[in-house]
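Fig. S4 source data, part A: sequence.
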Amino acid sequence: MSNPVAYVFSCIFVLFAHGAMLFNVFYNGNYNDVSAVITLSAAVIGLDAVYFIIMPFFKQQTYAVDLMLIFILNMGLIFQSCFGEVSFQMKHFITIIAALAACRIGYLLCRDHRWIEDKKKYIWIGIGAIMLIILLFTGSRSMWIQIGSSSIQPSEFIKPLLVLACATSVTEQQKKHKLLCFNVVYENLILFGIVAGVCLFQWWCRDLGSIPTFGAIFVSGFLLRICYPKGKFTKKPIVIGVAAIAVLAVIGIIVAPAYVRDRLFVDIWNEKDVNGYQQCQALIAIADGGWFGKGPGQGFLHNVFAYDSDIVFASISEEWGLLFSVMSVFVLLMIVAIPLVNPPRSYYHGTMCAGICAAFSVQMALNIFGSCNMIPFTGVTLPFISKGGSSMVVSGLMAGMLVAAQSPVFKAPKRKRPVSPAPQPVQPQQPVQQAPPQQPPVGYTLTDRRK
């Protein structure tokens, strides 16, 4: 740990912030039995303490992402336990623990960029395998696998795999080949095909709300692939890419199902009991909450479908106030911005961070702006806050990948030992015959040599 004092003070700040929120629940919350508040407080403070003790055992350059992660996760637990009435949400607490475990897995897997980069073909296969699982086990044009009373959304796990597929190093982008009139990298063409297949698959499964997230991951990765340091940058690929995206967007709107077109062009106040019901109720709740909210458990939006996932921003605004909602978004933006403050140690990790930050930013924008009726309602979750096991675990995994980019491991590639030639049999050396000493000619004396 580079700065133990800063780590201790950061932990105290997180504990103080959670303590202040729990005091607000105790003082202003709607509950019948104080044991619900005590249980919630013990879970939040206990998880904070255990996490702060465990983290120093992981050798990292910085713990900023980890501290922001536990901060926002326990904020989400407090929010989720207060909608309508204060009651400890055990299921959400378990998903938080799963997200923290996934964060450690992402950290350990992605520290060595050479190792993860060598597994790129397996990453491509993994994306295809998940799509095949969706086709076989989710039923006709669905994205969910039902297991008893729980459900899993396998398409969420495509996000980190797509981030790793888009990540690249400078060395890979220098392997260009002539194709028609372009110098291209074959891997970039393969990646474009993968993304196109994923987006078409999402459209077929009627999950159009996730397409902007996948598109953002690809666009960020594509830009960093063609704009790498000291690369010969041309505007032609960008112009062609923007034109292709525009054409695909127009085609997508034309062939979109009827319910999607209704969401794009609906007037929510004229259809407040049909297509615009959720957004109307969300806007009313935000207005009723004001800056400081009605109080934990004092709202009515919990009676509306998806109050704890798709329109969770409005639910927080109603009970805790717009100030708390904005603070939650600020913490999420801090998690996204930390890789910019502490630059990644390799270009591969930099492109990986760009994809993760693009995914989180687009998800936040879709959820918040959709709840506020600034864009069509998409039904996308808010990272680390919305209820949902698959989304929570995947968000934790991608947060661990951000941590890995801040504390990478560099291992020199193993050098192959040169193959030595087979030993040749030693030939016995022939004795060197010395010439006999020459005798001076007859009549030659020492006196003659001096002369």
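Fig. S4 source data, part B ends here. Residues 48 and 54 are 10 Å apart (CA to CA).
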